[in-house]
Design brief:
Number of helices: 19
Low-confidence stretches: 13-125
Largest sheet: 6 strands, antiparallel, barrel
Helix content: 40-55%
Order of helices and strands: HHHHHHHHHHEEEEEEHHHHHHHHH
Shape: globular
Length: about 500
Amino acid sequence: MPEAIIFSIFDVAEQRAEVPSSTSDELQIKTWEVRARSKVDVAVARRAIPRRSCADSHVQAASPTIRRYTSSDYCWALRRRSLPRAALLTLLLRGTLPILKFKYASTGARALLLLAACATWGNGQEASSALAGYLPQSPVTDHSTIDLDQAAFEAALPDQAQTAFDAAVSIYTLGGNSKSYAVLTLASQLTSEVPQGTEVYGFAANGARVNGTVYETASAGASSLEVQYIVGSTLAPGGGATTCRVGGLVNRVTDGCFRQTTDLTIETAPVISTSATAVNNLNGRTLQSFSTNAQDLMYDNCPGCPYKHYKMFYDYYGRFDYVDRWVTAALRGEDTEFRNGNALFTTSNDVDTRREAAQKGTAYMGVWMYVIREFEDAIDDCNAGTPSDNANAAHAWDEGVAFYTGSLEGTDGTGAGTLLYALADKRCAETKTCGRNGNSDSGTSKVNIDILAQFALGQMTINLEECSAVRPILDRIVQLMTVPLVQGSLRY
């Protein structure tokens, strides 16, 4: 996690902490401290957590008091999720930070780095899965590879010498890089139900084994089976993609695809051995689907529906699929026919205009709104969760970050992406708003530094089941996500 982001987390968390108004409130601080330490001690005793060094170099560099808060017991309790979430709140926001504010601000960033590492960097995902410095708690590498669709879409759009948009339309509508799955036509009907998530393996054209999981539950008697390809966990730029990428892509990857006729093993109990006589490779997530599914996911059928920001755009444009209509109209040279903000691509129909409108529409209208949708979904899931299990909310939050950064930015944000993280860095260089202080024309944008801090705080807040406290975090995220859009509007 870059140092600038840690400082930003520290700044924001310090503002949120219930800081005593005077030194006479030291007793309250001590109460928080005792409460936090007792919770950890109980967790350590019950779970027999070994006393090991956790980020030892950072611990040794900190003061003795901070070292007490960041001892190996605390780290391992947090990493193994033995520490109750309520105690984690006390430790991170009400116990540690007020003390740091009064006495140890100079070492606060180092201590918070350690605490953030303990709180988030041990929950099932490795550092190789990080998204521009944010470590998700759930598998979202496949989600992040939607940026590969955006890259392929942009590459397929014509330049001045070309007029055909057909290749770009195929990528936009069919995808190719995210949520890849195969529809397998079976040699014989299934003799029993095969639940979603069941492991399946067969073989590729080169004889290599191909692994997947059942995409949708198949009933007994079904003559076909949908199997999602296994996704890599490493997030080197684009590294989370499967080795079966077909969809509407021009440059396809088929090394990891099921061959057209293959023996299959379905890991039910008992195991089913069968074969496939035909394979059709599809994608369950496309740039177009972010808009065409919007009404269902953001307006009609969610606990928090209609989502505030989506409703604002729907009320303005007068269409639930306003993004898809914008992009499709640009690709076809048609008018958008919006209630407001109508674009006339029948008259403004030069290749440059249509290309720019299409590629900016997919990333900065479609993906932009879907990022917000995932964070809204996280709040819905948080409210519906139980004290012992809030995994759905944590996963939805991770998905939002994955769609914001994409895979091409790599684990530390130094890659060359195509989505919103890349936009913020591009605009900061043009408007001199890069760096922690927002006064440089190079480096990571102030927007990305601040928004990653909000991502981390949102993740911690969801883990604590402080569901109502996530709303102001999301509102701040939307504000930050809007800055590059305004910067771009001013530029053009």
